[in-house]
Amino acid sequence: MEISDKLLCLFNADVTATDDGYIVEVPRSEVEKGSIDPGETYRVALISREAPEEKPSESKRESRKGSEPQPPVEIGEVRYVEIEDIGKQGDGIARVERGYVIIVPGAEIGEQVKVEVTEVKSNFAVGEIIDESTL
Description:
Helix content: 10-25%
Mean pLDDT: 80
Shape: elongated
Structural class: mainly beta
Strand order of the largest sheet: 3-7-8-6-5-4
Number of helices: 2
Radius of gyration: 18 Å
């Protein structure tokens, strides 16, 4: 099974019936970690409890990747980020999933910018500002 790099969190939950629908409860820890915000709308994917049979091509891909987590962004990907800090060389620093850093030259603390990822390394990426308007 392939999982999107845009995955914000992953947890097990029961589906509870109500009078007019069903509820999937998000653990408090997922909100406290900062990966999701109350009041926002997210896509939800439900995965069967049974593990799917792994395809041979997937196991080869996994062995190439090793056990190290892959960066949550790809070259060319467009993201909205908030600049949280300034690096030693004066570049803006934003953090996305799992605390992964995106360096944004020319950005300042507190700015919310739209960036295109131009370089990806195992522990950081570089993004170029393409829109400085407020989110």
